[in-house]
């Protein structure tokens, strides 16, 4: 009972009905992560919210958005069956053992944001070996290269995890941390909004991968999975239009 109370403290419910919906699913979403998720008066909006509404309406599935404290918490709640869907999910084998993945609906590139003026590198290991420090989002996936690097305990000590995107940016802007590993759209958004003109984008691409919806293995039928996949394919032109409109100023 105590754990249930603690869970509910961090969750806010936002219902969204699709016309003629055949079922209802709970969509787990995290905190502010513009341009993908933003809140105004506790109501979520943003790129991933718009795409999620569009796709599940097309699939005739009603949804409720449940706000969770972090990406890591979202995975826990999906695996337990408390939530049915996680948007903005990168594929890896461990996750695929616990959830279904839809066809991709967009791509994500994780980049290095820093105040340092450094030459190009051939691998991320070079920066860890030079004793630079890094900040990331707990529960997010940054690719196999970083995953392998963090198997080494000495390198693992060079990285800290912070849930708030604005706080991650602030740590790098104030030179308390050397590098932020962040989605390039989100990084540019914060640079523009917060006026962090001293932050620059390093040329190295940490990870470039497809983004999917993760679906609960226990709460989705094969027919529902097919309906969501068909909706993503049908809506590709509209999804691309949403993504293009969200490109932040200065993006390249």
UniProtKB/TrEMBL annotation:
A Pfam family recorded for this sequence: SBP_bac_3
Keyword entries, A-Z: Signal
Signal peptide region: 1-17
Superkingdom as given in the UniProt entry: Bacteria
InterPro entries registered for this protein in UniProt: Solute-binding_3/MltF_N
Record-annotated Solute-binding protein family 3/N-terminal domain positions: 24-246
Keyword Signal among UniProt keywords: yes
Family that this chain belongs to: Belongs to the bacterial solute-binding protein 3 family.
Name assigned to this protein: ABC-type amino acid transport/signal transduction system, periplasmic component/domain protein
